[in-house]
Amino acid sequence: MAAPASTKTRTEILISGFGGQGVVRMGQILGLCAINQGHRVTMLKSHGTETRGGYVRAQLVISPDEVDSPVVEHADVFVAFSAPAYKKFYDLCDGTIMYDPEMVSDVRHDAGAARHVAVPATQLSKERFSNQLFANMIMLGALTRVAALDRDAMQRAMLAVIPRFHEQNLAALELGYTLPAVV
Amino acid sequence: MNKLAAKYLRPSQIPTKACHGCGIGMIENWLLQAIDELGFDQDDVVFGTGIGCVGRQTFATWGGDNFGATHGRALAVATGLKLAQPDKKYLIVVGDGDAASIGTSHLIHAARRNLGVTVICEDNMGYESTGGQFSPTTPSGYVTNSSPYGMVEPPFDPCDVVKAAGATFVAETTATQWHQTVKIVKKALQNDGFSFVHVRFPCNENFGAYALGTRDTLKNLEWIYEHTQGRKADGSPADFTWETGIKHDASNSRPEFSKLLRDLNERVRADLAAKAAATTAKSSS
Amino acid sequence: MATVDPALLPNLVAPWSEWERRATRGRRLLEAGTYALTEGAIAAGCRVFAGYPITPATDIAEYMSKRLPQVGGYYMQAEDELAGMHMCAGASLGGLKAMTATSGPGYTLMHDAYGWALTNEIPLVVVDAMRVGPISGITGAPGQGEFYVARYCTHGGNFETIVLSPSSVQEAFWLTIDAFNLSERFRTPVTILTDQVVSDMWEDLFVPDSTEPLDFVVPRALNLSMPFYPVGSAALDVPPNVIGHGTGVCVSAYTHTEEGYDIEEMEAQWAQTYRLVNKIRHHRAELSRYETLGLGDAEVIAVAYGANARTVKTGVLEARRRGVRAGFIRLITLWPFLDSLFERDARYVVCELNYDGQLVREVMRAAPDKRNVHFMGKSAELHTVAEVATALEGVARSGRVPELPFIWTEV
What we know:
The complex is a heterotrimer.
Chain A: E1 11-17, H1 23-36, E2 40-45, H2 48-52, E3 56-63, E4 75-80, H3 83-89, E5 93-99, E6 115-118, H4 121-129, H5 135-146, H6 151-161, H7 166-177
Helix pairs in contact in A: 1-6, 4-5, 5-7, 6-7
Chain B: H1 3-8, H2 24-37, E1 45-49, H3 53-58, E2 66-68, H4 74-84, E3 89-95, H5 96-102, H6 104-113, E4 118-123, H7 158-165, E5 169-174, H8 178-189, E6 195-200, H9 204-212, H10 217-229, E7 245-249, H11 257-284
Helix pairs in contact in B: 2-8, 5-6, 6-7
Chain C: E1 11-13, H1 16-22, E2 26-32, H2 33-43, E3 48-51, H3 58-70, E4 74-77, H4 81-93, E5 98-102, H5 104-109, H6 111-119, E6 124-132, E7 138-142, H7 147-151, E8 162-164, H8 169-186, E9 189-195, H9 196-200, E10 202-208, E11 250-251, H10 266-281, E12 290-293, E13 300-304, H11 308-321, E14 326-331, E15 333-335, E16 347-352, H12 359-366, E17 373-377, H13 385-398
Parallel strand pairs in C: 3-4, 3-5, 5-6, 6-9, 8-9, 13-14, 13-16, 16-17
Antiparallel strand pairs in C: 1-12, 2-10, 6-7, 8-15, 12-14
């Protein structure tokens, strides 16, 4: 189903994965970045029932105008950090699906399906930082490139939101931004 | 109207609607005596009460500020008031229903916090304004209008409860102990913390009539007296004994609740100011 | 950017549409509704919070515990909601502006204190972040089950209540200031009826700088003389009573005289009721807050409040794109009910987050023909844009809401 005309100015982003992967943090940085650039933003986080159901979700809507519905019904970008999340929200996306191949192995390739971009964020985070903690920032870097967002503004938002490990997080953001898969 | 009543009470609200022979008015007079001997004025004391005989009969009698809370919640209201008006003395006069039953959780937590109020629990050993049902302070086995076969539950002693919860002054007296009660209430009011005074008094119309079989004030007072002595007038042992007197006195031994919050407030604001000053110094250097 | 048909520009009737123009210096943040409710309260001069943690209102308590000491205020964690709201009433009676926050199960426990504050005309603000019920229901899912509970938030009748509901994080901020202002001016508790989505949602939020009190904040006044209760009067802006200033004020749970004395006479009951009911009924215009869109030509009007008004509004725009002459009414003031908004002889589709139908009953009462009032109840999830557009289309074309999964249409 095509996005309704009335919501054309909206950009809808859905990020989902397991708890602890930094899904909400990623949404928070993305949202703050958009606000700093003069946009209006809504972000729905998962409620407890969902979290216990095996996935955490952040739904962002970014628009130059006031956002009415905060619900993502037609995601322009869907970031899938887990197989259950990928399966659950696949149909909500009619734009780009960015997925972590270490978490999502069974990728659908239906006719007319959304464009898929594999971002090996978890693997890269482990290789580069000996820790998978920075996978979300690698993914955010990749998303910044895919969605043609302002890299410097994203860096500033990240520094404002995350209290620690600024050096590693900046490096992770840059790693994602310059990945061959998204360049 | 006696001299104390004329000094402290509202003429339009005296006499109260209390039943003939009720101890509430007498005990209130003892409270006035304690207030007077401590030199407090009407404006120094906020008088709070609840629901039931004690609430209804004492509300708006005090000449200064009065509040009559919903049933059981006088101490919750007093907790908020104490923050806003920390320099007042709070005399919270409630019955056994308010203190020992419907409002016990607030009693316990006010004691735990060491809230700066004096609670006078005037205990007529049952719910008398609703016609005489048992309460958590009705002695086991006694007949009331909701224990026609004798109360089967064990009662508890509210003094034990507040002491365990952290009250800094705890005492028990009865309507047969005038001077002792005045002395105790004076001590209670001098504690900058949570004071609890349990005062048993007779209800002639209900507890007296149904549990003790008499509406005679003197006989009902005598029954209370016997149970503070542990023996009856004829020398035979009473069925149980109430220990009266000061049960715990740790007056002014730990900080009062609203002071704790004010101190916290000052500490947080001092830290903020120091931080702001440091930032200014840094940016100007 | 798409050009917007001027007929479709939303019409917001609320004091903050003007405040937004006046307060221009401040910070733009990405924050949750609970944060906005807290900062709104602080900006309104709230200096006491007493409550008991409960999902999804807990974050308000946590923010308050951090913020209040910074501004010279006090946070108290009560032993239960009964205590929490009574503590607030006590603090307000002592002269400090106070607020509590809870969700359905705690709101039920507050009825006692609510009635006491209401009858004693003690200003305070209570936030109910609704979740789906009954009772504990689903703790983290949105519901709108307290529409009537908020109206009748205590027993005994003989009163009117003020209930407001925000639908965005920014609005939660302004509306909280408004709620405090109304509670001062009307001398009554005001309920902010919000929901899990508005509380937990993060959104762009402008918070004005306020080293000085904002000039639209109504300061606390003190009544230092008789009468303590203008019984039989509907006057606004009567200063609230205060304990601790030597006035000899009396407050209680009883029907009272102008001195505050308890009284058991029909005349006193009449005069007190006149005051409690008419101070609100006679000032409905001052309490009107709502948003409308597309009413100019609307033949079918979607009605909603709170979080789901967001998706409903987008649904209305989508229905118009499909050729349906759809309009939108978003209630911000829920009580007193704004009957005059429903005078138009149109079809109404009332979207609310419960299956039993609450707001829809009031719309049925206020609308010219209750047969033209349709119900679209959903529970635990917001209505989707697609559902709303389909329902509006169905009502416009065939006079009924089509069958949709998990949507309830019977009232």
